[in-house]
Design goal:
This protein is mainly β. The chain has 2 helices and 15 strands. The strands form 4 sheets. Strands 1-2-13-10-15-8-3 form a 7-stranded antiparallel β-sheet, with helices on one face. A 4-stranded antiparallel β-sheet has the order 9-14-11-12, with no helix packed on it. A hairpin with a 2-residue loop joins strand 1 and strand 2. The structure holds N-(carboxycarbonyl)-S-(naphthalen-2-ylmethyl)-L-cysteine and fe (iii) ion.
């Protein structure tokens, strides 16, 4: 068997969708064809709105570095979480969402049964070795009717897929370079997180994992 830790192990042919539960589906390798272009676009976005470590309402510095593109960006500070049309760091609108991003999000949502997905927010998370994202729910978007599309690039991570309560047992789902997950309907309010990223390097991202999450937030 293959561990799937390297690009060379990843099949070129489309993989069958893996359902985690109703409303949550993993599309293995769905973003492999555009991956290099996606990462180039991330660099261009970060040149305008740099990655930064946001502060939680509780005053803690998040270990994930974040930026955004599109009409709305997710931000956190001492006053709370919100979607903001302006990057508070630059005082300017977030960089535009590249056509490549919009098309990928739309195609992935359609492959999961959500036709016509048109996200207005793309949160870009950057993980370095040791970076983790503790269990949380995504509740800052009003539109639970729309799915969330997440794209994993670079170093593989172990994603935690929990239940409706924080204390519910979480399963560990490996997310590799090029994997896309679509979360909709009943799965939208599940607790989820990411285990600390291992020390590793990836040919396209070096010592990082990049995750794009596309949402309809406005
Ligand atoms: C399940 N990001 O940004 S992506 C987040 O890998 C976030 O960076 C993780 O959780 C990451 O909020 C996980 C997968 C994901 C994104 C949003 C979800 C899973 C989700 C919303 C609801 C349920
Ligand atoms: Fe989340």
């Amino acid at each position: 068997m293959t561990l799937g830790l390297f690009d060379d192990d990843q099949p070129a042919a489309p993989q069958a969708p893996e359902w985690l539960e109703p409303g949550a589906v993993v599309l293995r390798g769905f973003a492999l064809p555009p991956a290099a272009g996606l990462l180039q676009a991330v660099d261009a976005i970060a040149a305008q709105s740099p990655f930064r470590h946001l502060i939680t309402p509780g005053g803690k510095r998040m270990s994930v570095a974040m930026t955004n593109c599109g009409p709305l960006g997710w931000v956190s500070d001492r006053s709370g979480y919100r979607y903001d049309p302006v990057d508070p760091e630059t005082g300017r609108p977030w960089p535009a969402m590249p056509a490549l991003f919009k098309q990928l999000a739309r195609d992935a949502a359609e492959a999961a049964g959500f036709a016509g997905f048109a996200p207005d927010a793309c949160l870009i998370n950057r993980y370095a070795p040791g970076t983790r994202l503790s269990l949380h729910q995504d509740r800052d978007e009003g539109h639970y009717a729309h799915p969330i599309v997440s794209v994993s690039l670079g170093i593989p991570a172990l994603f935690l897929w929990g239940g409706a309560q924080r204390a519910d047992r979480a399963r560990r789902v490996p997310l590799l370079h090029g994997d896309v997950v679509v979360w909709g309907g009943p799965a939208r309010l599940r607790f989820h997180g990411v285990l600390p990223l291992p020390e590793a390097t990836h040919p396209l991202t070096g010592a990082h994992r990049i995750n794009l999450t596309f949402r309809k937030a406005g």
